[in-house]
Amino acid sequence: MSNIKDRLDALAAQLAADRLTGFVVPLTDEHMSEYVGAYAQRLEWLTGFGGSAGSAAVLGSKAAIFTDGRYTLQVREQVPGDLFEYQDVPRTSAAQWLAEHSAAGDRIGYDPWLHTRGWVDATRRLLADKGAELVAVAANPIDRIWDGRPAQSLARLEVQADEHAGQTAADKRAEIGRALAARGADAVVVAALDSIAWLLNIRGRDVSRTPVALAFAIVHADAGVDLFIAPEKLSEAVRAHLGPDVRVRPRADFAPALAGFGGRTVVADPASCVAAIFAALADGGATIIEARDPTLLAKAVKNPVEIAGTVAAHRRDGAALTRFLHWFDGEAPKGGLTEMSAAAKLKQFREQTNVLEDLSFDTISGAGPNAAIPHYRVSEESSRPIVMDSIYLVDSGGQYRDGTTDVTRTMIVGTPTAEMKDRFTRVLKGHIALARAIFPAGTRGVQLDALARQYLWEAGLDYAHGTGHGVGSYLSVHEGPQRIAAAWSSQPGNDEPLLAGMILSNEPGYYKSGEYGIRIENLVLVEERRVPGAEKDLLGFRELTLAPIDRNLIDTALLTAAERQWVDLYHARVRAEIGPQLDDAARAWLAGATAPL
């Protein structure tokens, strides 16, 4: 089946054979992951959509694809509109669309290993109002028609040394064991891949750009762990690292193990444990406590060793990015560069550090109109030339053993228009406002988001993505539970209090469809702030990212004295910390690129 229509037709035939009238296709895996292995890319296989968030629904002869504002342009370029209706989230959802279009007697299938129980319950209620039924499938129909579907990765596990983790796996397990005992629970199911990696101080290569391994874990109150994973993925060194209290079992044993908790109390996180997990526990007679994954906050609040590591990673990564910016400034005006070639060159500079493990996500390399697609993914087919008097946006990052980076810089090639400078400066003003914020302990990300948007709002402008997401320590580039986003955001974590030790991004932007896009992104560390005479505990942000911001796009007349000072101080720090890592030519260029405004 070489085209999307053939695949839709094959799915329709399979659904008919299964006595189903519809099916829901999310972009996730059995762990509710944002980034998934090739074997779980069912949405892309069926629709052609290559973004990192979305879903599809098929009902009879109708089909729809659901994406949020980050992918408004991308979905229309990749998914044929004659086969799929484009639906905007959070204005609607797959469940709402199915309820609107279903009829009495319809049987809508879903894979219980790819949805939360909350989604299942809510969707079942919506469909019941129309007399339709939501049906759990024993086998995913897409998997049955997907010829050549990739197998699950068998890449070997790797140890994340204590010198980078800052805490032993035994100590982490003991803390969770004590917490379980305190609440009268016998065990907790840990399904999120990055949680398992953090808990056991292991890393993997099963998911592109995210160093995790496909596994499930059950942590017991005695601090012992059952780790469900393909045994061939473990070397003797990894087994020795895990120790005798971590019992390695085949991944296929996971569901039967859940059924064996009859009469005992098990904690499961409804956000990361899929419906099938809850069903197996309930069917086996377990008492279930719905509670947040106990590793979540501990993972989000970095310890001193992790903080020192991420600082070192950002200095190293900032030097690589600055070398690229110097190279780009000289090469772009000559012509001949493309989005693909620029992204490849940036990767090359990172590889020259000799400690790059991977990129932290596929580089967003957008020229001109493609820069207006917030989560654009360049390909051979879409790659545009980088031309004079146009904007180039590059959002990229690296995975290093001591930290994960994520940074966006927007550059002008040639001469910017007055509008470009106005928009860039408004984005910069918002970035500075958030960077300089001092706020009381207990503040949530949703309460800070408007700081970054206010100057765009003044001109009747906005952007359709969050302002900040959490970042892991040699783990996921998108890590919860904290985030900074507008109140209308459909993504979780916006109401999470920010705590000292958390890492977030600060990335306001502006996108003019069909013309250009702007984003300025630094990673920041939440730190305690001491203010003379303060009557409450205060927090603020420390810049981790170190790379010059394009002065040629700044309209200094729009900046206040305090904002100009922020830029000058930030650039002085970039010169001081990045300059010594550069050769003479790049250091001379950096001196000009960071000269006081």
Name the average pLDDT: 96
Domain unit count: 3
Predict the CATH topology of the largest domain. Answer: Creatine Amidinohydrolase
Strand content: 15-25%
In CATH terms, what is the architecture of the largest domain? Alpha-Beta Complex
What is the CA-based Rg, rounded? 25 Å
Straight-line N-to-C gap: 58 Å
Shape: globular
Query: What's the level 1 CATH class of the largest domain?
Result: Alpha Beta
Helix amount, in percent? 25-40%
Q: What strand line-up does the widest sheet have?
A: 4-3-2-1-5-6
The description of the largest β-sheet is: 6 strands, mixed
Q: Provide a count of the helices.
A: 19
Low-confidence stretches: none
Describe the structure.
- Belongs to the peptidase M24B family.
- InterPro entries: Creatin/AminoP/Spt16_N (IPR029149), Creatinase/aminopeptidase-like (IPR036005), Creatinase_N (IPR000587), Pept_M24 (IPR000994), Pept_M24B (IPR033740), Peptidase_M24_C (IPR032416), X-Pro_aminopeptidase_P (IPR050422).
- Keywords: Hydrolase, Metal-binding.
- It holds the Pfam family Peptidase_M24_C.
- Helix content is about 35%, strand content about 20%.
- The chain is α+β, with helices and mostly antiparallel strands.
- The chain has three domains: about 5-145, Creatine Amidinohydrolase, Chain A, domain 1 (3-Layer(aba) Sandwich), CATH 3.40.350.10; about 160-295, Creatine Amidinohydrolase, Chain A, domain 1 (3-Layer(aba) Sandwich); about 300-595, Creatine Amidinohydrolase (Alpha-Beta Complex), CATH 3.90.230.10.
- Helix 14 crosses helix 15.
- The longest helix has 28 residues, at about 305-330.
- The radius of gyration is 25 Å and the shape is globular.
- It starts with a helix and ends with a helix.
